[in-house]
Amino acid sequence: MPVSVPHVRGLSPWRCESRELTVARAILPRSLMEAARVILHVDMDAFFASVEMRDDPRLQGRPVLVGGAGRRGVVAAASYEARKFGCRSAQPMVHALRLCPEAVVVAPRHATYVEVSRQVFDIFERFSPLVEGLSIDEAFLDVSGSERLLGTPRQIADAVRKAVREETALTCSVGIASVKFLAKIASGMNKPDGVTEIPAGKELEFLTPLPVGALWGAGPKTEERLAQRGIRTVGDLRRLGPSTLTSWFGAQGAHLYRLSEGIDERAVIPDREAKSISNEDTYAHDVVGVEALKRCLLSQATRVADRLVAEGLRARCVHLKIRDGRFVTETRQCTLPEAVDDHRAIYGAACRLLESVETEGRSFRLTGVGVAALEEASAPVQLGLFDAVGSRGRAPGGAAAAPLRKDSLQAVLSAVRERFGHQALFPGAAGSERRGGATGAISHTRGAPPAEQAENPGPDGPRKPGRRGDGGEGHR
Ligand SMILES: [Mg+2]
Q: Which cofactors is this protein said to need (predicted)?
């Protein structure tokens, strides 16, 4: 009998999928992969200074410098009022006070900033499981695939800003683009409290007039060397072509050229402890056809739902992972309108995600269903717009009544399977594709198995965990 290996928080295979996605992007036609990418870069506005101004109303509207007040103090953050005087973070405090003598100097409260940062990242994770922090106050969110439920990229950006404003009383700015570095540039263009979108197809138009220093990896030295040759804008740089740039700057030149073309294949790599539950199977024989794949997904959705119930959790995000016979791995994700622990809801979402995978003429060696954006099942369930009063199991007065029938059914099914094994009360259509159980030929994987990792290591080798703040992007 097949053994189910549930992936619990911290052990999730989804943590390494972005690397695989990068590989997939390198293999598949660009149009196929890029069409689906929507990346937000969210950057809190003058983060430390804004937190101080929020917590001390006397500071509002005044130039505020957060940092050490001593002779050797350095500005950690300057409010927008102080920036008007030329004050900037990383300036010596003495210098900043010369520029703006009336500025109020506030000692940093790092514990508070960390706490607010955690709050803000929790909000980000409600919009996507793919959240990559660049620092305490900025992150990339890959919201590809969330459009159907969350709206257009701009609507998603506005919803993020609204949630941040309502829940933390702080503002942030958002950049929207099809690749990371453009989203990052965009978020800085309408600060504070602004949104800048670079629509797909407009990347070159946006990039051409920008100074070369806007590109990641083009530091002041590179900028100076280019300026000596009359190269000032990204457009100038692009016209040089890849071979000239490579002869001047080696690999960095090739990198800059790709950026000048708007090409940046770096995936958004989630770096927080992955809070997800997933289940995947590698098949002894490749699975062919949508119906067969759906049976696999039903089995996996059921195991994931059981795990959710066992842990007393519900999930708002559903992922699909699928790997074909050529080891090309694709992932899809979506956000649900409400948190669920019902296998039918998870299965339904996985099937919708499967629709966006090209299945014609391909056979698949692995499928996986996962959930993220977990919350306690006891958390209050928001009333749906069209729910009749009380239909979520609440009396009109708000008091909890008997839970919904489907909820209790899921709990009973899960409990029975918990007790009598996975095959007991299994949904009729599921499981028949997990062939070879009797022969033991199926390998049930936890994370990416070493053998497959070796076959498909990605362009940069295995990814290291804990990437936040590791400087790996080379753009700071
Ligand atoms: Mg910031």
A: Mg(2+)
One-letter amino acid of 209: P
CB atoms within 10 A of CB 373: 21
Which CATH superfamily hosts domain 13-26+274-455? DNA polymerase, Y-family, little finger domain (3.30.1490.100)
- When pLDDT is cut at 50, 70 and 90, the band that residue 443 belongs to is very low
Q: If you measure from the C-alpha of residue 231 to the centroid of ligand 1, how many angstroms do you get, rounded to a whole number?
A: 29
Annotation marks residue 224 as catalytic: no
State how far the Cα of 215 lies from the Cα of 237, in Å rounded to an integer. Answer: 11
Please name the amino acid found at residue 92: P
Q: How far is the CA of 89 from the centre of ligand 1 (A)?
A: 11
pLDDT digits (tens, 9 = 90+) for 210-229: 999 999 888 888 899 999 99
Which is the catalytic residue, given 125, 138, 280, 433?
138
Q: Which CATH class is domain 47-111?
A: alpha beta
Ramachandran assignment for 86, one of left (phi > 0), alpha (psi -120 to 50 degrees), beta (any other) = left
- How far apart CA 94 and CA 103 sit, in angstroms, is 11
Q: How far apart are the CA of 316 and the centre of ligand 1, in A?
A: 28
